[in-house]
Specification:
Residues 201-441 form the Glutamate/phenylalanine/leucine/valine/L-tryptophan dehydrogenase C-terminal domain. Belongs to the Glu/Leu/Phe/Val dehydrogenases family. The radius of gyration is 21 Å and the shape is globular. The protein is built from 17 helices and 12 strands. Helix content is 49%, strand content 15%. With 443 residues, the protein is an alpha/beta fold. The longest helix is centred in the C-terminal third of the chain and has 26 residues, at 390-415. The chain binds NADPH dihydro-nicotinamide-adenine-dinucleotide phosphate. Residues 164-167, 208, 236-241, 260-262, 316-318, 321, 341-343, 368, 371 line the site of NADPH dihydro-nicotinamide-adenine-dinucleotide phosphate.
Length: 443
């Protein structure tokens, strides 16, 4: 049996209930096999066994009191997966679906994504099954303070630097930072995604969505195409989706559909992003409100957003939101490229279907790396105690996304992978981390 299969079977036997983690591990392990087979040191040094076992996984109780005086207990997680190339770095997800498997899958993916950025950041992820939706600001603050009261002892500017993710936006990061500072008396870059008045970076809010579109532009340019004039469908209407839409529109694309977890809107004339921002960022309401701004648009709670014909599909909501049937529909409707703004939004069979149909498929760990890249730039600014201009950060982001594409292209050429960006991204990220792990000895 090959080394990769042996390691995967061991994982599957040890963690039968961690479906999302196994899915991510299988995808990475399978695609890096050609590189693993080339270097016997990986097996000798048990690189894959060490890479798939987190350095540590911290689980903790998060008690808090709601506005009626009722006590709630949520579960907090921080998985510090791998710090071979830098301090652990990865977001905090606040969503009722959060469990250890999801945090491990995200933390594992983060190792390779962070390596691809070319910046010195390791992989980690955390979060809680707390749902900020429908909670008052005071309740969210009570949760965040309780969460940080345990988390603070495990993190630090040179140790582990959490950030936002689903459910963790500027408000939550502010409360978390306030509590960290209060407990430790340290004013340091321990979180990213901070507000601009206390160490945040310009362009961090936009980074993941903008970076996704920059990455897709690189892919299209290599085929003699551009974003301009393309019809685009974007799932989600959160941070990633909103700024992907903004950049796509700036570059001349027509975005015709967006969604939230209740339904999706179709606007043949092109999405009115100001309306989406008002509904989602200001009023924190449901996307169904969109039709009150644009009466000619349609709102659907049935059917699939992926039924809308498009040239570019950008899934930017959550994991496994685009399945095989969706892929078939998109292909039938002539989709040219798919870029994952979310983490693992495409099921493995759908991803394979795109690739075998010749659709350009950009995996999240490359396509959405712009967010963590600018987070790392936020860390640099905090260490320097300086703030760079929006244009400077945006320019660096563009360069980083082009650099990621370049690394992937080089691996694809070396291994004869054609346009298999999944294998290209996994191998490029893996080789960098594995090289550092080999250098550090058995630790
Ligand atoms: P947000 O919480 O800002 O937005 C998430 C969006 O997805 C919302 O529109 C939400 O709808 C929708 N959504 C969430 N869960 C589901 C579900 N089960 N079914 C359908 N829709 C759903 O998160 P982000 O935009 O920050 O993150 C989106 C994805 O991008 C995640 O996979 C995240 O891990 C990934 N990512 C984010 C980065 C960042 O910088 N923010 C960086 C790299 C990756 P609703 O409002 O109804 O909940």
């Amino acid at each position: 049996m090959s080394y990769v299969k042996e390691v995967y079977e061991g994982l599957a036997a040890n963690h039968p209930h961690e479906g999302e983690f196994l899915q991510a591990a299988e995808e990475v392990l399978t695609s890096i096999e050609p590189a693993v087979e080339k270097n016997p040191a990986y097996r000798q040094q048990a690189i894959l066994e060490r890479l798939t076992e987190p350095d540590r996984a911290i689980l903790f109780r998060v008690p808090w009191v709601d506005d009626k005086g009722v006590v709630h207990v949520n579960r907090g997680y921080r998985v510090q997966f791998n710090n071979a190339i830098g301090p652990y770095k990865g977001g905090l997800r606040l969503h009722p679906s959060v469990n250890l498997s999801i945090i491990k899958f995200l933390g594992f993916e983060q190792i390779f994504k962070n390596a691809l950025t070319g910046l010195p950041i390791g992989g980690g992820k955390g979060g809680s099954d707390f749902d900020p939706k429908g909670k008052s600001d005071r309740e969210v603050m009570a949760f965040c303070q309780s969460f940080m009261t345990e988390l603070y002892r495990h993190i630090g500017a040179d140790v582990d630097v959490p950030a936002g993710d689903i459910g963790t936006g500027a408000r939550e990061i502010g409360y978390l930072y306030g509590q960290y500072k209060r407990i430790t008396n340290l004013y340091e870059g321990v979180l990213t995604g901070k507000g601009l008045t206390y160490g945040g970076s310009l362009a961090r809010t936009e980074a993941t969505g903008y970076g996704l579109v920059y990455f897709m532009s690189e892919i299209l340019a290599a085929k003699g195409q551009s974003i301009s004039g393309k019809t685009v469908v974007i799932s989600g209407s959160g941070n990633v989706a909103t700024y992907a839409c903004e950049k796509a529109q700036q570059l001349g694309a027509k975005v015709v559909a967006m969604s939230d977890s209740n339904g999706w809107v179709y606007d043949a004339e092109g999405i009115d992003l100001a309306a989406i921002k008002q509904i989602k960022e200001v009023e924190r309401k449901r996307i169904r409100e969109y039709v009150s701004y644009r009466p000619k648009a349609e709102y659907h709670e049935t059917g699939r957003i992926w039924d809308v014909p498009c040239d570019l599909a950008l899934p930017c909501a959550t994991q496994n939101e685009l399945n095989l049937a969706d892929a078939d529909t998109l292909i039938k409707n002539g989709v040219f490229a798919v870029g994952e703004g979310a983490n693992m939004p495409t099921t493995p069979d759908a991803a394979h279907r795109f690739q075998s149909a010749g659709v350009l498929f950009a995996p999240g760990k490359a396509a959405n790396a712009g967010g963590v890249a600018v987070s790392a730039l936020e860390m640099s600014q905090n260490s320097q105690r300086l703030s760079w201009s929006f244009a400077e950060v945006d320019e660096r982001l563009k360069g980083i996304m082009a650099g990621i594409y370049g690394q992937i292209r080089a691996v694809c050429e070396e291994f004869g992978f054609g346009d298999n960006y999944v294998a290209g991204a996994n191998i490029a990220g893996f080789q960098k981390v594995a090289k550092s792990m080999l250098a550090h000895g058995i630790v």
